[in-house]
Every structure is written in C-alpha cells, then in structure tokens.
Amino acid sequence: MFARSVSIHLKANSSVAFSIQTENETVPTLRKQEGFQGELTFLAPGGTDAVAISLWDKKENADAYARTGYPGVLKSLNRLIEGTPKVQTYEVANSTFQKIAATVAA
Fold first, then answer.
1. CA 99, 68, 18: angle at the middle one, nearest 5?
2. 75-97 pLDDT, tens per residue?
3. pLDDT-flagged residues of the chain (< 50)
4. Nearest alpha-carbon partner for 95 in 62, 49, 57, 51
5. Which residues make Cβ contacts (< 8 Å) with residue 18, sequence separation at least 6?
6. Torsion sign, CA atoms 32, 36, 37, 39
7. What is the DSSP string of 42-97?
8. Cα(96)–Cα(93) distance, rounded to whole angstroms?
9. Nearest residue to 10 (alpha-carbon basis) of 45, 40, 50
C-alpha cells in the first residue's frame, strides 16, 4: 500500500468551504481513480492548515493520479488555499485500516 500526504495552508475562514469541497468534489474524483483505497483529511485547530492523506493499492496508481487527477483537484481548491501544497509520498508499513503486514526488512 502507498500513501500520498498533501499539506495545505488554507486562506482565512475557508475551512468550512474546504471541508465541503473535499466531501463533494475531491473524494468523488479520488473514488474514480484506479487503485484508490481511502482518504483521511485533517484540519488543524483554528482551521488554517489541513493535511489530506490518500491511500493507494500501489505506487503506480498513486503516481498516475498525481499526473492526471491531482492537477484538476488542485485547480478547484485554488480559491481556498494559500501557497503551494507540499506533497510527500510514503510506502505504508502497517495500518489498522487495512490488513497490512509490516514490510520493513529485519
């Protein structure tokens, strides 16, 4: 399993609109992507920072989304964010959400 973490700085007073857009537009877009497994979105107290973590079956599908789906999602969120979101990728070592065994070599 693979994860993409996107750290976002939100414009003032846009956390509610961000949450609504995530639920109504971003998540449905993700669900259409091959290999998409789930999404977690966090808002910091005060609502000025958010982190979105998407889970993927494999790196190739996460990379395909980064090339084809993410630019449209970012464009639709542009009115709500400040600066450029920071994207990081990870191999999931273990999870309680999915049955994943640790993949770290001993």
1. 75
2. 999 999 999 999 999 998 888 77
3. 101-106
4. 57
5. 8, 10, 43, 50, 77, 80, 81
6. negative
7. EE-TTSSEEEEEEEESSHHHHHHHHHHTHHHHHHHHGGGEEEEEEEEEEE---BTT
8. 11
9. 50
CA 70 to chain centre: 9
Q: Would you state the pLDDT for residue 98? A: 62
Cα 7–Cα 10–Cα 16 angle in degrees, nearest 5: 110
Under DSSP, the state recorded for 33 is S
Q: Are 81 and 10 in contact (CB under 8 A)?
A: yes
Measured between alpha carbons, how far is 19 from 9 in angstroms, rounded to an integer? 13
Tokens describing residue 93: 């070592």
Task: Quote the pLDDT of residue 102.
Answer: 47
Distance CA 52, CA 61 (A): 17
